[in-house]
Amino acid sequence: MMTRTALRIVGCVALALAGGAGLLSPTAAWARRPAVVSTAPADGAALSTPPDRIELSMSGAPDPALSHLSVRDGGGAEVAGGDLTAAGHVLRRPVTVQGVGDFTVTYHVVLSNGEEAVGQLSFSVGTGAPPAARPANAAPETHQHGIDPLNAILLIVDGAVVFGVLLLLISRPGPRSQARRRLSGRDPVAE
Asked: Which of 62, 121, 123, 184 could disulfide-link to 43, CB 3.0 to 4.6 Å?
């Protein structure tokens, strides 16, 4: 069984590790939110000719391997083809737009520092009018990611901290047991 001093040391180390991990977490409450600086085509654009690619200029360097960008026509058919590529702060995806109508771009961009930007934009081709307004409650397309290694490590550290705190609470004698020890002649300070 660990002595009370050893348990306190373990608890303090666990708390320090958890606090440091929380400060280093990219999901910390004070983390800066990434932004889409500009798009091509622009949100709400009425184009006379179809674009050959979609570009999102970001506030940081995007990671194309972790990012998603979908382009759908008014009927919901995917018109984006090819892989996402990044150059500097710009994320690109080729599209093959055939016909006229409204098109919706849905994106989830993960920057190289772990920050994320999610959103939608729309444009029209050949209609001479901006795209129809999207309903305010329209949900963006969903997708799944694997387990984020940093968050998995932080979860393990948090579990260790909780375990350490519980050990400290269990091993710490309460005021009644200290009083009983004094009455029985055992000195609780010497233990």
From this structure: 121
